[in-house]
Amino acid sequence: MSEQVTAKSITSQLWSMANDLRGNLDASEFRNYILGFMFYRYLSEHQEEYLVNENILDLKDGESVNDAYLREAKGEDRAEYIEDIARNLGYAIEPEFTWKTIVGKVNSGDIKPSDYQDMFDEFNKNAQLNQSAKEDFSEIFADVNLGNSRLGNSTAARAKSLGAVVESVDTFEYQDDQGHDILGDVYEYLIAEFAGNSGKKAGEFYTPHQVSKILAKLVSLDAKQEGQFTVYDPAMGSGSLLLTVQDQLPNGQEKGRVAFEGQELNTTTYNLARMNLMMHGIDYQNMDLRNADTLEDDWPSREENGVMAPVTFDAVVANPPYSAKWDNNDNKMKDPRFKDFGKLAPKTKADYAFVLHGLYHLDREGTMAIVLPHGVLFRGAAEGMIRQAIIEKNYLDAVIGLPSGIFFSTGIPTVVLVFKKNRKNKDILFIDASNDFEKGKKQNVLRDSDVDKIINTYQKREDVEKYAHVAQLDEIEENDFNLNIPRYVDTFEEEEPVDAEALLSDMQSIDSEIAELTKQINEQMDDLVATDEDSQKTLDILKQVLK
């Protein structure tokens, strides 16, 4: 029986090929090539589907879609084909640079080194034809560095390396045994594999799936069953967290059900996010992603009656860089995101700047869940003032402590903070989930049962011995607005009483063993004979020490 076709099995084979192909490139560097070509293949095949489904090509008997496209889209008609495709898909790929044409050239040995540059140049040019979509596709392949000397010492050698990547990506059919498209899942698994081999760089682009599930479940618990649901991630990385919200949302897979917005500072990671969402079937019209500094440049906003107003969302999710540096100059106290909280987050710890940005864009009836280091719970000075202001405004709903070692990029324990603006209750739920995990080789893993326990406890909102506590506002005030979880959830385990008689017996037994061993050593020392005067002095000293 053949191995069942699954996203994991395909990923395993692709990952093995990637390790064989990458040569001198490290995992994080090679990532851009294999994921970039996977995305190019996806776009090309998506374009083929459009040409067939819309009956744009006049297919002759036995003719492939690619051959028909090569035959028809030429001469004076070429521009019309390209403009029509770009107008409907947001991008367009020339007949000479479709995935099947490139693969054919690689297999026949006719590929020229310049073909790779030409195919990306033409793609970028055609992406400008659709004004509403050009930001979604422009320079999306910029991180596929065709001139990287570590691909090869010559143009021909680099072209050969790229050809090997093309062949490996083309090897697989991205459908499972039931014919379901699993390309997006394969892409996601590969991102996770690259994260696991990228050390501290992993934190820049990937949130472990189980952590994403916790945040996604928290923000979707009260979601309406129908209608559009809006979600925003101000530090979106590769977009995995946004996609997980869709997975947890009732009817989340319905076309147009979720509108995604996100911002990312790192351009390479921003490109990953654009690819990742589209590979999961998200139409460019249902996503608005931006490459910018969230804390420096507030976004998104829309003009209303001549005044710029913040766009607010049903859900805000984030796993921002922990305790990052930011420019907290005094002018930012005029920023509407920060001005109502008394202080700015410290220059070397932007954690609360991300919190306040997210709150600013959270709808009155929405939910925000954000992962941060434990320091935000108890650090004083400016952070203490901001924390107190948030609590007094009754925005903080829950504090959930996670285990240490569950992230690729750091071993520190983290905390999930849950916020709501329209809370009727004036208490805060504390959950200590720090001891619920499975020990792994490289990192600890949250099991489905651990995730479910957190969510069920959050929903019930009641005390659970050594796990959860609902703290009233006066209790928080008594603790000077310090939210350190051990102040509210007592996880102390008493040690078993010591058996004094057994301990004394063990000590006497150990003393007897020591005395016997000392006697044996002394007897052996007495048998030693020195060969000269210096040796005899050393031997006498050793005997004295042992006695």
Please, how many helices?
Answer: 18
Helix content: 40-55%
Topology pattern, helix = H, strand = E: HHHHHHHHHHEHEHEEEEHEHEEEHEHHH
Instruction: Output the radius of gyration.
Output: 31 Å
Strand content is: 5-15%
Average pLDDT taken over every residue:
90
- Pick out the low-confidence regions: none
Molecular shape = globular
Biggest sheet record: 9 strands, mixed
Transmembrane segments: 395-419
Domain DNA methylase adenine-specific: 180-496
Protein name: site-specific DNA-methyltransferase (adenine-specific)
Enzyme class: transferase
In brief, what are we looking at here?
With 547 residues, the chain is α/β, with parallel strands linked by helices.
How does this model look, in words?
Helix content is 43%, strand content 12%. The chain has helices at 7-21, 27-53, 65-72, 78-89, 99-108, 113-127, 134-137, 155-170, 183-196, 209-220, 240-248, 267-279, 351-360, 381-392, 448-460, 473-478, 500-526, 533-546, and strands at 229-233, 258-264, 287-291, 301-304, 307-310, 313-318, 362-373, 396-401, 414-420, 427-432, 468-472. The strands form 2 sheets. A 9-stranded mixed β-sheet has the order 3-2-1-6-7-9-8-10-11. It has a two-stranded antiparallel sheet with strand order 4-5. It is globular, with a radius of gyration of 31 Å. The N and C termini lie far apart (75 Å). The model has no long low-confidence stretch (mean pLDDT 90).
